[in-house]
Amino acid sequence: MSEILVTGGAGFIGANFVHHWRKAHPDDTVCVLDLLTYAGNPANLDGLDGVDLVVGDIRDTALVESLLRDRKIDRLVHFAAESHVDRSISGPDAFISTNVDGTHSLLKAARMVWLGEGSGRPHRFHHVSTDEVYGSLGPGDPAFSETTPYAPNSPYSASKAASDHLVRAYHHTFGLETTTSNCSNNYGPYQFPEKLIPLFLINCLEGRSLPIYGDGMNVRDWLHVEDHCRGIELVLEKGKPGEVYNIGGGEELPNMTVIDAICAAVDRAFVEVEGLAARYPDAPAASGKATGELKTFVTDRAGHDRRYAIDCSKIERELGYHPHNSFAEGFAATLAWYLANEDWWQALLQR
Q1: Which one of 131, 164, 177, 227 is the catalytic residue?
Q2: What structural domains does the chain harbor?
Q3: Domain NAD(P)-binding, which positions (predicted)?
Q4: Which of 1, 216, 263, 303 is paired with 136 by a 20 to 30 Å CA distance?
Q5: Other CB atoms closer than 10 Å to residue 79's CB: what's the count?
Q6: Catalytic residue among 156, 170, 187, 321
Q7: For this structure, is 132 an active site residue?
Q8: pLDDT at 119 (0 to 100)
Q9: Which residues of 175-198 are buried (b: 16+ CB within 10 A; e: fewer)?
């Protein structure tokens, strides 16, 4: 039996990873380090045993050192980050502090305990990053690969790019055994309702407008969080130290296509699921109207990247990764989860 440290494990992707890891590795315990900012939610870990939540800051290097040392932890998976682009535009400082300084704090702690104190045990520091560090693609450009030059365009993506470089430097300079994964747009259970899919799902149910940036034709690769967690697991178990692996869902879709799918699915749900009209009387679908009438076009986000696409050939070839969830399947499961877990998201809206 061993213990793994997961930073940001009470957030969206981190919590899904903790659920996945406990199911796939029942003999391992998990230490979650999370500051419980607005996007961190202890309820995301409800129902799990073998998980210890430590409320703390990744910038507290001494705390991280003590967790690694006292619990004899030799694997760290780093999710903790400020991640919402709009928030990075209105307030960049928090992104630099958490994503850059916080990652550096973790690296310093790992170096001290795993290398400086000479434990001699194999270890792994896995850093979870984003495809946004690569910048924006044109319509005919090839998908991002691990050798695509970095060209971040928002304070968020710039802060993640900086943290990626720090992880690389600690491997090449100090010999820390690191890996990095760059993922595409995640969706699924426990996603905080500031991101497109949960925000628009809830707005559809509550009859609020669906604000669409620009012309709605910005393209993203959509990755179900379950597939992302499996990809990270493969990198932890089989990935080569010092390497970077891109993880995508193989579903490159314009935002408008995703929004139309949300509206159509909600319309169908109100026909097929008994009692939805009574639960959500403000939804257009409750009175037989089309959910799509909530769509509203708003001024585009500053510096909005036009297209992201992920080339997963490296992780597929070297580690055997393949996404299991098509967007249609993954989104249907996500909608069902949000309908079944109204108490979870209503509690967030009332904070």
Answers
A1: 131
A2: 3-192+222-254+309-326 (3.40.50.720)
A3: 5-332
A4: 263
A5: 25
A6: 156
A7: yes
A8: 59
A9: ebbbbbbbbbbbbbbbbbbebbbb
